[in-house]
Amino acid sequence: MVAALTRGERAFLAVTAAITAAAGAAHYAGGGAVLAFVAAGFALGGMAWVVSFATEQVGERFGPAVTGFLQSTLGNLPEFFIVVFALNAGQVVVAKTSIIGSLFANALLVLGLVIVVGARHDREGCMRFRKRLPNDTTTLLLVAVFIIVIVGLTLASGVEAAHHVKAISAVGAVCLLVTYALWVWSYLRSDEPRGEGQAHAARLPLAFSLALLGISGLGAAFISDWFVSALEPAINSLGISQAFAGLVIVAIAGNAVENVTGIVLANKGQHDLAISVVKNSVAQIAAFLFPALVLVSFLFAHTLTFGLAPVYIGALFLTAIAIWQITGDGEALVFEGFALIALYIVLATFAFVD
Predict the structure, then answer these.
(1) Angle at which helices 271-284 and 132-157 pack, to 10 degrees?
(2) Which of 12, 37, 66, 129 makes the best surface tag, with the fewest CB within 10 Å?
(3) Termini Cα distance of the chain
(4) What's the pLDDT tens digit per position in 234-251?
(5) What is the pLDDT of residue 113?
């Protein structure tokens, strides 16, 4: 089975194992906070690549919808663990900003990079893909934004409902999860399975790929714990805010799968699959991960709600409009990808100076 891997893949697995061991040593041996934080961040990125690679091997047996869904779901594992451990540690600001940061990172930065790479490798300079997923993603994102706006206005107005934000968030979370489940059911049923010739593209046996997924998922849980443990001391040493750490650093590290996989697929000319990975991740964070974590947070002393700062509420709404405008017609140009990246840079700058 290992022989089926290329030399580069075997080397990357070895490097990931070494970095993970170093991150574990830095955590348990009480190394410097910044060193432990950086090591855990690189280990998360390496583990994300392993998840991406194993999922791609499993997904070779299915169509782009199922493959993109699998990669996005498993790719969000580190983010889920990071938020859970952050809530357990009482770092609510980091937990909340890392979730919305993941939305911004995928919907603006990663999608923008995917469009730039995909469009530049097309003869006509235009990246083309199926329209359904971009439009469905925008719908799910707008439903999430609607709930976030309602909670934000409730808190700002100081009406009686402001004392029941937790209950409103819980109801909104359940509604989002039901909506997402109905969408997933219809979306996956519409997938086009790969032909017999395409199914043989997988180089690894299904059992080996699934075992690799299980090991990397477990590894992501441990590394996320080390990452969060080193987070607060590290940001104090570096002099950055918790909001910037959650919105930018944690969000990018926790979504390394989409960062790498989407760009690689776009570079290979697999535009539908590249868009599927990124857009599935946006849909999952908005309509599955965020509401699921809201409900899970009731198990902890510190509760997560849909209440956000007004600037982030406005940014989420404008992000939904931007990605609908750019991808809703099933094609995108290079400058549109740069436009999304520019929006992310402006938002990250705000978080840095805030």
Answers:
(1) 20
(2) 12
(3) 51
(4) 877 877 877 788 788 877
(5) 92
Q: What is the pLDDT of residues 290-330, one digit of tens each?
A: 999 999 999 888 888 998 888 999 999 999 999 999 998 98
| Contact in structure between 73 and 81 (CB atoms under 8 Å) | no
Q: For residue 207, count other CB atoms closer than 10 A to its CB.
A: 9
DSSP letter at 158? Answer: T
With residues binned 3-state (H G I as helix, E B as strand, rest as coil), the percentages for the chain, rounded to 5, are 80, 0, 15
Note the pTM of the prediction, 2 decimals.
0.81
How many whole angstroms separate alpha carbon 209 and alpha carbon 254? 22
Helix (H, G, I), strand (E, B) or coil at 333: strand
For residue 239, the model assigns a pLDDT of 79
- Digit-coded pLDDT (tens) for 33-42: 788 888 888 8
Q: For residue 182, give both structure tokens.
A: 């109905």
Give the tens place of pLDDT for each residue, 199-222.
445 677 777 877 877 787 778 778
**Are the beta carbons of 43 and 246 closer than 8 angstroms?**
no
- CA–CA separation, 50 and 9 (whole Å): 9
Cα torsion 114, 117, 122, 125: sign: positive
Long-range contacts of 269-274 (CB under 8 A, 24+ apart): 269/118, 269/121, 269/122, 270/64, 271/118, 271/127, 271/128, 271/129, 272/64, 272/129, 272/130, 273/64, 273/67, 273/68, 274/114, 274/118, 274/129
Name beta bridge partners: 168. none
Question: What is the C-alpha to C-alpha distance for residues 336 and 350, in angstroms, rounded to an integer?
Answer: 22
Check if the beta carbon of residue 213 is closer than 8 Å to that of residue 55: yes
